[in-house]
Amino acid sequence: MIKVAPSLLASNYLEFGKALDKVVSSGADALHYDVMDGSFVPAITFGQGLLSFLSKRGFPIDAHLMIVHPEKHISEFAEAGARYITIHQEAAGFETANTLRRIREAGCLAGVSVKPYTDVHALEEVLELCDLILIMTVEPGKGGQKLLPFTLDKVREIRRMCTERGLNPIVEVDGGINTETAPLAVAAGADMLVAGSAFFKAEDPAEFVKLLKRS
Ligand code: DX5
Ligand code: ZN
Question: Which residues line ligand 1 (CB under 6 A)?
Fold first, then answer.
């Protein structure tokens, strides 16, 4: 089963509640929530406060932390009601394993992400601690970019590494996912698709989600 997670980043910021309604009624599986801190990536987006309002609906929220020192903020995001919390390996460094453990202890699903130019083998030591692995298919920091085709080889490789170890985490892709690129990502081994601009631009969001799930 392919999961679809529309990204709030591409929504109309005057109407977060309506954006959530649109995501829920489309048949998507989670709301992807991009947290940017102005350090790990140039832009600054939203934090725990907004998440705590959105999570009140009970719909799963997939928090993607593009922030330095993610280990400092796990309990806040867990308390705010995130279902998935994904940290970046490049940001957490030696703290990656501990931080993933803490995410699980907080009752959330633990995810780790790598940027396009980070080798997936950097995740070798932490695979067993992950419920989700997010392979960035664009440089993190903004929506509306084109998927970098070489990142799909990384999806294949991480799937192979997990299978070899008897692990079956969710493999998520994020960036430039639309009805054309989704089948390529799924063929490479992805089973959770983030879509920002393509979802919010779609004339029929439910049809868009259906198409992505059939990828
Ligand atoms: C980029 C974010 C993505 C972004 C994807 O740094 O992590 O989640 O919203 O946007 P699209 O789907 O427009 O590439
Ligand atoms: Zn994201």
Answer: 7, 9-10, 32, 34, 64, 138, 140-145, 174-177, 194-198
**Which segments of 43-116 are extended strands (E)?**
61-66, 84-88, 109-114
The fold of the 3-213 domain, in CATH, is TIM Barrel (3.20.20)
Q: Look up the pTM and report it.
A: 0.98
Query: Which ligand 1 atom is at minimum distance from the Cα of 64?
Result: 7
Encode pLDDT of 94-121 as tens digits: 999 999 999 999 999 999 999 999 999 9
Shortest-distance atom of ligand 1 to CA 41: 6
Atom 12 of ligand 1, residue of closest alpha carbon: 196
User: 214: buried, middle or exposed (CB in 10 Å: 19+, 13-18, 0-12)?
Assistant: exposed
**What residue ranges do the domains of the chain occupy?**
3-213
